[in-house]
Amino acid sequence: MGAGCTNEILSKLVATRPIFQSGDFRAIGHGLASSIGMQHALPGRQVVCITGDGSFMMELQELATLARTGFPITVIVVHNSAYGNMKRDQMRHYDGRLLGTQLLIPDLPRLASSFGVHGEQLTKPAELEPAMRRAFSSGKAAVLDVICPIEGL
């Protein structure tokens, strides 16, 4: 999606319900599990989880929970093949030297499908809204893998 795609993604989302997030602590590995808890607490509400690929990799086993429970949570994965915030910090503060921030991310739509979950990969901001509509209308959990390189690379 190119430079600034994270802002492009977030600017296209209009929350008509409360947003729950981890604050400024950069907590990773809790987004999907927290969303499952919210869906359990708020049945009948549409729950959307926006998470980075590093965080998602820490809890991708929860796709099995989604398949088992039938919770129709849509997971938007911001896919930059990195622990993005840490990578940006290293680029800014250490003359671009990187250590331990690069990730190997599998084919997330195929992975989702192997759990019986709807999966799509997106490469353009204009694809997000129609993909979300398809995910919501599927009646089941969905993983939207949004390719989003880190700015400046």
Brief sketch in words of this structure:
The chain has 153 residues and is of the alpha/beta class. The chain has helices at residues 5-11, 31-41, 53-58, 62-69, 84-93, 108-114, 128-138; strands at residues 48-52, 74-79, 118-122, 142-147.
Describe it.
- The chain has 153 residues and is an alpha/beta fold.
- It has a single domain (5-10, 28-147), classed as Thiamin diphosphate (ThDP)-binding fold, Pyr/PP domains (Rossmann fold).
- 39% of the residues lie in helices and 14% in strands.
- The chain is built from seven helices and four strands; from the N terminus they run H-H-E-H-H-E-H-H-E-H-E.
- It has helices at residues 5-11, 31-41, 53-58, 62-69, 84-93, 108-114, 128-138; strands at residues 48-52, 74-79, 118-122, 142-147.
- A four-stranded parallel sheet has the order 1-2-4-3, with helices on both faces.
- Strand 3, helix 7 (128-138) and strand 4 form a beta-alpha-beta unit.
- The longest helix has 11 residues, at 31-41.
